[in-house]
Amino acid sequence: MLDVARLAVEAARRAGADHAEARVTTDETEAITVRDERMEGVDRTSSTGVGIRVLAGGRWGFAATARLDEEDVERTAALAVSIARAAARLPGEAVRLAPVEPAQARWETPIVEDPFEVPLAEKIALLMEATHRARGVAGVTYAEGTLDFFRRRSWFASSEGAAIEQTITQSGGGLQATAVGDEDVQRRSFPDSFRGHHRSAGYEHVRMLGLVAEAERIGREAVELLAAPECPSEVTTLVLDANQMELQIHESIGHAIELDRVLGMELAYAGGSFLRPEDLGRRRYGSPLLAVTADATLPGGLGTFGFDDEGVPAQRVPIIEDGVLVNFLTSRETAPIVGRTSNGTARADGWGHLPLIRMTNISIEPREGTLAEIIGDTEDGMYLSTNTSWSIDDHRINFQFGCEVAWRIRKGRLTQLYRNPNYTGTTPEFWGSLDAVAGREDWVVYGTPNCGKGQPSQVGRVGHGVAPARFRGVQVGVRAS
Question: What's the pTM value of the predicted model, to 2 decimals?
Answer without folding.
Answer: 0.96
